[in-house]
Amino acid sequence: MTGPAALSRDPHPAIDPITLTVIQNGLQQVCNEMDLAFSRAAFSPVISETHDRSDGIYHRDDGALIAQGEDGLPVFVGTMQDCCATVIERARNLQPGDVYIVNDPYLGGTHLMDVKFVKPFFYKGELFCWLANTGHWPDTGGAVPGGFSASATEVEQEGLRLPPVKLYKAGAIDEEILSIINSNIRIADQRIGDIKAQAAALTVGERRLTLLLDRYGADTVDRAIAEMRVRAAQQMRAKIAAVPDGVYESTAIVDSDGVVNEPLTIALALTIRGEEAHFDLSRSSPPCQGPMNSVIATTRSSVYLAMKHIYPDVAINAGTFEPLRIADPDGTFLYAKYPRPVSGCAAEVSQRIAEAVFAAMTRAVPDHLFAAPAGTSGNFSLGGTDPKTGRGYVCYLISGGGYGGHAGGDGISNGCSTIGISKTTPIEVVEQRYPILYEEYALREGSGGAGEHRGGFGVRYKVRLRRGNARASFVMDHGRVGPQGALGGADGAPNTVLVERGGESYTPLHLSKEQGISITEGDAITVQTPGGGGYGDPAKRDPALIERDRVREYYP
Amino acid sequence: MSGNGTRPMARIVGVDVGGTFTDLVYLDAALPGGLALAKVPTSLDNQAGGVMAALEAAGVDTATLDQIVHGTTTTTNALLERKVARTGLITTKGFRDVLELGRRTRPTSYGLTGHFEPLIPRELRLEVAERMDADGEVLTPLDEAGVAAAADALKDAGCEAVVIHFLHSYANPDHERRAEEIVRARWPQAEVTAGSAILSEFREYERGTTAAVNATVQPVLRRYLKRLTDRLSDGGYARTLLVMQGNGGTISAERAADQAVNTVMSGPASGVMAAAYTARAAGFANVLTYDMGGTSSDVGLIIDGIPSIHSELDLEYGMPIHVPMVDVHTIGAGGGSIASVDASGLLKVGPESAGAVPGPICYARGGTRPTITDANLVLGRLDPARLLSVDNPVSLDDVRARIVEAVGAPLGLSADAAAAAILRVANDRMAGAIRMVSLSKGHDPRDFVLFAFGGAGPLHATALARELAVPTVVVPARPGITNAIGCAVADLRHDFVNTLNTPLEALDIAGVHALFAEQEAEGRALLDAEGVALASVEIRRSVDMQFLGQSHILQVPLDTATPSLDDLARLFAAAYWERFAVDLPEIRPVLVNLHTAVLGHRPAVPLAQLAASNDRAATVADAQETTRDVWFEDGGWQVTPIYRRERLPEGAAFDGPAIVAQFDSTTVIEPGQSARLDDFGNLLVSVALLQ
Predict the structure, then answer these.
(1) Which GO terms describe its molecular function (chain A) (predicted)?
(2) How far apart are CA B238 and CA B224, in angstroms?
(3) Which listed residue, of A198, B93, B323, B324, carries a Cα 20 to 30 Å from A404's Cα?
């Protein structure tokens, strides 16, 4: 229909594209400032140094993503909107200054350590939207310090689970709820600083968003938000339309669930039909006993972020995901329900799901893609009491690995996890805080998969306990097979772990996962993270680059 | 000697080398109007050529000069183009790859490709046995023979410079110092940089990279300054050549190369220093500086007359530089920024730039994509007659057609509307950058003036001020040579940092007082050694603090060298509240770093001379050159008077709409705004605020 009749159906005139751009930039800036305030004020290095956190703005009706900080963790893109939706469903008697706290994985979450704060934002007395952030807490209780229990079989062993409750009521912290939390987590005395930082970031967002609404008016900003969503969907549709129709299958392997030493398979059938992409994960392995189950919010988010990695220029909000249809993978480990343990989903299973998406898309549009990245966060936690200070500690470390080669060149060395944008914590900071000494932190030679464009290199590090006793746990992956090469390139080197305890060394049974390893002064752990997959036939590699790599001793 | 017995004003040259032009200001009471200016093309391969050409163009007799102060982009260009000296690294065994692995992420949040090359390649990174712990206790003694062998190997490999970078050297620099001695003794020609000597703060990647930046540009800067000082002394110049640094202060050319990293951000710093100096004289203490050039815009913040300083900059992805420098926020929006419509149908302006070549369409150097400058031209803000007087002219209609093609057609806009849209999106991005440096730090823009300079700053400043609710725009007398003026007015400056990293309850406050005293004494000694005439010396002190368990710090300025523990606790709590609106009585504060800046103020420079003109009209009306149709966001096209800046009478006052044109810039005054010239020749524009 055209003409006046069609126009009159729309009560709001279309927003002009210039105002739209200005408002989009403004909303983005609000989120970026929340990210910055959270990191700068936080106490835990996992937030202040590695930036394992994210801040965003969500729709008042359904929690749909409106904008997310550019420096936030990509995996939280999808999960936070599901989490906000849960809070919206349950919210009662909202007042300005209320802040919900929630970490329940089954209610739009990842693992328990990712704690969300969700705050209603009021403008001129009316609910306009929700502001929310996620921060990775170093500990939320459970069987092992740091929460990465590699052999948990139910979520209760993984830590304290919080449904949405108001931690702040009309701006004042609820000391009773706080005391419940503090009674159930380790090193509680250091948590108050992070809690205040997490809430302060939302306050910063509130102030800045108010200024934006003062300037443009709530109605205009509302219309801009709706229009941004439509446009993002159009953009993603245009990308998918350019992919040849067909069914593209791929698999990715999780080493084990940490309890039963058998690989888990992610089996993806990707159907491209016109402007939509259908992701069928239903032939994946059934739910597992150990913590490698993924909750549905994380499964969906992993698909979203993989597609966003492939098409980084597409704007990001709820519209971006509309053409991506993900059937609920009922009956698989990718749709975990209570009480399945899930600590490995955010950091590890999510990256295997992304790897499956990359591999399927490589079959569809080979020239546009890249070989697989290291795809493990290298989660390593160590907890104990330092006899020198008498204080308890929980040290949580993540590592990078090599990225895959791509049409434009070799892969990056020591890139961060696919689902993150985290920095590693400086060695000097770790050694200041914890009774740990690094003996080596080196590029892992030979780990990048060969190819016309080789994979980037992983990292090799060795840490030794200097004082007292501690318990070490790690949840990593890609120990069984390395990251996949593409178009004839070789796979990257797999992850390895070596534990030296009481003068003896061993490789863990599950290769990349073990929990609660009791170690004492002088014991050491050596980790080698995966290299990226190679891209293209290694025989076609430029001899000058081969010579350069030889001079640099990249291959032993 | 002048007849009345007073000392004649010193003859001073400020000369700044930019990407396109080398600008010079020459202050000399004997000259007509008291000064001479020059703007010559920058000589890219050896900037000394452009500097000498500028001196000649301004008619400077170098033999009688009292002072030359020089801003150079030599080190910045060397880094960005990776034309740096071959440099080796000697580091702690087990950690040679720290500089390659870093804390790396990937260049962008989304997309898994990208590229990174460390400044020092792997084959030149050598390890020696030694180890400190975080308390500075020696765990493994230094292998001195290993250091000697590594030095020999790097020398044989053709290195010119060496970085010595050991873990935890901020806590105990003994091993680094000893290794430096060994290297210097065996290899006197080498430039040696010890990490802790450049930056005594934890975070091994940032400290090591800062040291690597210093070492790799050191030989480049030293050679350049040698060439320049040789040519200056050939011309009879006998005084100290002062070089501008990123901290906004100057240092003697002999010492500049020792801390070459400090010159990396000197260009933006000199602009902010000029703004601070000029605004202070005009009575404005709180200033937002806005410098718009061809490819980017720089925004800075001045509080109570003092430019804010920070020590964390990423020059590019993976290249952190952590030394004190003027806090300048750069965004990729300049006159040459390209406008385009992206796949989602939204208008984008920058960061892609047409640069100087091919440049904007209207420069007729082959540019075909519309830029901010083209939009300003189409909307009458720039004079087509002046801009288009090139050999191979492009007509205004050509420019309009290109704008319609690239922006108008996809958005369904006319040429005028498309050009207006380009300006609006560009202004929005620039306003966003200004908000980041002001609002995000808790400052209210209404308490500030917007100081606009650079060739394009005054074109956009009044619209930005309206958007930001900044009540006053200040356009200095010579906006296009502000950086050169910054050189002429800058102080000598030496910065000192010591890391204590101690909770207040365990702090030896007498030790703090002693360290402050040492830092001051060292700075005063350096000033004395430079032999430059000074009017006064100023000491600025601050501490970096955090709560126990944090890793980021907050800078807290001090007004005393002998603060009490209570003072420190109180000032930190107040600063923390101002920044984050959080109070944390339950957690102990920690003093991380002590800073002292020792500033040597040179004799005052008479700014009014900058506005000198022997061509002033009797009335504002007489200063009007012509009228032109100019487009404004409020009101559309309006017949607008065009004034010549040098013709405006002293104290002139007039209302917008108006355009003030001058040799090096164009100022737009919107309808509803009013403008006047102050006693120093600054053009002050009052901006009507919303509500």
Answers:
(1) 5-oxoprolinase (ATP-hydrolyzing) activity
(2) 18
(3) B93
Concatenated DSSP letters for A161-211? ---SEEEEETTEE-HHHHHHHHTTSTTGGGHHHHHHHHHHHHHHHHHHHHH
Nearest residue on chain B to A459, alpha-carbon basis: B101
Q: Where in chain B is the domain with CATH 3.30.420.40?
A: 12-79+222-263
| A193/B344 touch (CB, cutoff 8 Å), yes or no | no
Q: What is the pLDDT of residue A11?
A: 44
Strands across the sheet with B658-662, in order? B624-632, B636-644, B658-662, B665-669
CA distances from A275 to A272, A310, A314, A325 (A): 8, 16, 15, 11
- The rounded distance, in Å, linking the Cα atoms of A363 and A486 is 9
Reported as a pLDDT band with limits 50, 70 and 90, residue B388 is low
| Residue B204 contacts residue B176 (beta carbons within 8 Å) | no
SS3 A122: strand
What is the spatial distance between Cα B657 and Cα B669, in angstroms, rounded to a whole number? 5
Q: What percent of chain B has pLDDT over 70?
A: 97
Quick one: tokens of B197? 């000597």
* Residues A313, B342: C-beta atoms closer than 8 Å: yes
pLDDT at A13 over 70: no
Classify residue A63 as exposed, middle or buried by CB count within 10 Å of its CB (0-12, 13-18, 19+).
Answer: buried
Domain ranges of chain A: 17-232, 370-556
Q: Are A254 and A295 a contacting pair, CB within 8 Å?
A: no
Amino acid of residue A469: N
Homologous superfamily (CATH) of B12-79+222-263 is ATPase, nucleotide binding domain (3.30.420.40)
ipTM given for this complex:
0.91
User: Do B436 and A29 count as a contact with CB atoms less than 8 A apart?
Assistant: yes
Q: Looking at beta carbons, which residues of chain A come within 8 Å of B440?
A: 33, 36
* DSSP notation for A395-435: EEE---BPPPPBTTBPPPTTB--TT--PPPPPHHHHHHHSS
- Taking CB atoms and an 8 Å limit, are A416 and B106 in contact across chains? yes
Closest CA of chain A from B363, distance in Å = 26
A495-554 tens-digit pLDDT: 999 999 999 999 999 999 999 999 999 999 999 999 999 999 999 999 999 999 999 999
8 Å CB contact of A432 and B134:
yes
**Residues contacting residue A455 through CB under 8 Å, at least 6 positions apart:** A371, A402, A403, A404, A405, A410, A411, A447, A448, A449, A483, A485, A489, A490, A492, A531, A532, A533, A534, A535
Out of 3.30.1490, 3.40.710, 3.30.1370, 3.40.50, select the CATH number for domain B84-214: 3.40.50
CA distance to A169, A246, A301, B226, B665, per residue, from A76 (Å): 25, 30, 7, 54, 47
> Collapsing DSSP states into helix, strand and coil, what is residue A113?
coil
Instruction: Tell the burial category of B1 from Cβ atoms under 10 Å away from its Cβ (0-12, 13-18, 19+).
Output: exposed
Q: Which of A204, A425, A442 has the CB atom closest to B94's CB atom? A: A442
| B106, B170, B425 member nearest A21 (Cβ) | B425
Task: Measure CB to CB from residue A413 to each of B101, B109, B435 and give the nearest one.
Answer: B101
Buried b (16+ CB within 10 A) or exposed e, B391-427: eeebebebbbebbbebbbebbebebbbbbbbbbbbbb
CA separation, residue A13 to residues A10, A224, B160, B347, B566 (Å): 7, 11, 66, 19, 60
Q: What's this model's pTM, rounded to 2 decimal places? A: 0.90
Q: Tell me: the pLDDT tens digits for B187-203?
A: 999 999 999 999 888 89
Which residues in chain B have Cβ-Cβ distances shorter than 8 Å to A373? 112
Least confident of A178-182, A314-318, B43-47, B651-655: B43-47
